[in-house]
Amino acid sequence: MCLKDEHLAIPDLSAPLAIGNQTLRNRVVLAPMSGVTDLPFRDLAWRFGAGLVVTEMVASRELALNARESWSRIRNCGIQPHMVQLAGREAHWMAEAARIAEGEGADIVDINMGCPAKKVIGGYSGSALMRDPDHALGLIEATVKAVKVPVTVKMRLGWDHDSLNAPHIASRAEAAGAAMITVHGRTRMQFYEGRADWDAIRAVRDVLSIPLVANGDVDTAADALEILRRSGADAVMVGRSAQGRPWHPAVLAGACAHPSAEEVAALAVEHYRMMLDFYGVEGGLRHARKHVGWYLERFAPALTGPAKAEIMTARDSNFVAGRLAETLLDGATQKLGDAA
């Protein structure tokens, strides 16, 4: 594990990493992303070789009160370890939801203290918890006590640049029993603007003995090595760079090669079909549009707006699958190098 000395070796991303009683097969993690990392996306990323995939954020109170959407978000398909991310502002509901997740097969429970979305922080959840460390620690303690599986925490550097309290909260989280900390190198007020501050994450590394995962603007293999070097982290988490290429975490970990143009086209169609199966045709058409858009943006950037809109909004799934494959096959060969 890399600790305080910058001269220590950078961790090997292909090496396993222990998180409590669980072992990750490598050190590249697919970030939890609402509306993105549903079961079809996680299944593909895992199949290619990501070290860990995390569910979309699950509202703890809604899960405990049996909301259908929340239950669908914690579903698994044989991925091990199965990591469920919970969000909430009340210790009671966080504990109840953690027990449910564990009972439904979660191997790791993650606490969301990083989401910057207004609808999340408006409920005093996500990154809003960093404004009240005592309250945040109450949630962590309740969650840890509620389950036997490892509990982890994902946070930002702080609410804003006047309150960079991630080291303080992370240290207290470890003392409360957290098994891993993930830090996105931005404050809440930055949202996703500017560049993530990889150097600032090192202040968290300096106070921890448990594994640290660094997150924010990790796109290339060079980025992954640089964020490890500058942060001292043990692993990296990738989010937006995996949109439109669910194999990307595995490529960074050295677990698979970049797919060929033919494979990109086939995989995009498979992903599309998986979403229709998972959500049903009506829901699948709606949820799949953004993924189809990401594939087209990455691998067919020359496609005109009207042609792109036609593929994304068509309601005939066979038409979409056929046009998507044809378009990607035409454009992917030129873009594969840029996607590395």
Automatic annotation (TrEMBL):
Keyword NADP tagged: yes
Q: Where does FMN bind?
A: 85, 154, 184, 239-240
Active-site feature positions: 115
Which reaction equation describes what this protein catalyses? a 5,6-dihydrouridine in tRNA + NADP(+) = a uridine in tRNA + NADPH + H(+); a 5,6-dihydrouridine in tRNA + NAD(+) = a uridine in tRNA + NADH + H(+)
Question: From the UniProt record, which GO molecular function terms apply?
Answer: flavin adenine dinucleotide binding; tRNA binding; tRNA dihydrouridine synthase activity
Q: Which UniProt keywords apply?
A: Flavoprotein, FMN, NADP, Nucleotide-binding, Oxidoreductase, RNA-binding, tRNA processing, tRNA-binding
Q: Which Gene3D superfamilies does this one have?
A: Aldolase class I (3.20.20.70), Putative flavin oxidoreducatase, domain 2 (1.10.1200.80)
Instruction: List the Pfam families hit by this protein, alphabetically.
Output: Dus (PF01207)
| Record keyword Glycoprotein present | no
Q: Quote the PANTHER family the UniProt record gives.
A: TRNA-DIHYDROURIDINE(47) SYNTHASE [NAD(P)(+)]-LIKE
Q: What is the name of this protein?
A: tRNA-dihydrouridine synthase
